[in-house]
Amino acid sequence: MIEYTAIIRDTAKKLLKDGKVDVFIGYKKGTVPMMNEPVVISDPEKVDTLHWDSLCGLNLCNYLTKRKDKIGIIANGCNSRNIVTHILENQISREQLYIVGIPCTGVIDHRAVLRAVGNKEVLDVQEQGDKFTVSGNGFSETFDKAKFLRTNCAVCTHRNPVIYDEMVASPVKEQEGVDPFEDVKKIEAMDPEKKWGFFTKMIERCLRCYACRNSCPLCYCPTCFVDESKPQWVGKSIDPTDTMTFHIMRAYHCAGRCTDCGACERVCPVGIPMRQFTKKLNKDALEYFSWEAGLNPDARPPLDVYKPDDYNDFVK
Amino acid sequence: MLKGLLEHIGIEPGRLNFSWISSAEATKFVDVAQQVAASVKALGPARYLIKKRAEVA
Lengths: 316, 57
Ligand code: SF4
Ligand code: SF4
Ligand code: SF4
What we know:
The complex is a heterodimer. Chain A is an alpha/beta fold.
């Protein structure tokens, strides 16, 4: 994956120089290891800031909302599906975009890496093909990337971009025989009391920092319901009921839209796996409406169209 | 899908009910209201997603 960096830089330079785009959105190396940051570049001489490796875990589509200029952007599978969703929801138009597609082999879970090195301070990560080497003061360890993927990447079945103007490399083989919903099914099998216990415990440490919301391209409301004060829909403290209400509502606002890109989990300062909420909705969207978000720019999402044969067994 | 999500996190099936009743369907309204009341009564008082008043020491 690391070898794509040079191609991305060349492409961005050309696009900016030729005036095909006003800005180019990509990633740059973070100030600390494993924390690559998004970057918006407008000067063709500055494209060397651009970087790509298996630690680009944020969702760049987040930076497209309501922009008016012409934009070059890099997109792997899930990011491209969010771009499609953005186009469908009129947050950006296809004509404004020049999409540089990346066939993705997954993003490394930085928390898993930290666990594997006993939470020692990581000073450097180098990628070599499907392996990577983590080093710091007095240690250096090499791991298989495939064993350190984020949980969403491990079960991802749409690694190639669904929409692009050019690709940096030929498509990768999509994963087969993975069950994206194994974890959801386990929870479904519990009784209500256990379920409630599971989710209450899961969000116990939530700080209500809203990083999960901010990192998600779907959350572009000018004023989020949690920030409204007239009326105030939900309490602002870390009262467990308020926190649960926030999580239920955040997830539900993503129903039929979430691409399981994992940005929300990636940014949580306390490591809450809040994809457990959105994944249930993704599973139901697939089961009831044969729908996976962002795969088709010409199909309206199930929750904004009515069809006489919609699933409605729950209506009395 | 909302019902699915809420039941997934532990709200008991039967507590959340949906129906579509026209203003002209008085008997249907009575029936459904009775059904809902019965199914919620059977479950007993809500245990989850209740906000308690702040405890002041
Ligand atoms: S979810 Fe899929 S496309 Fe997105 S980063 Fe992971 S493997 Fe790549
Ligand atoms: S809810 Fe999370 S996984 Fe889903 S699109 Fe938003 S950031 Fe990505
Ligand atoms: S990022 Fe984590 S701590 Fe912050 S609001 Fe979301 S779940 Fe809570």
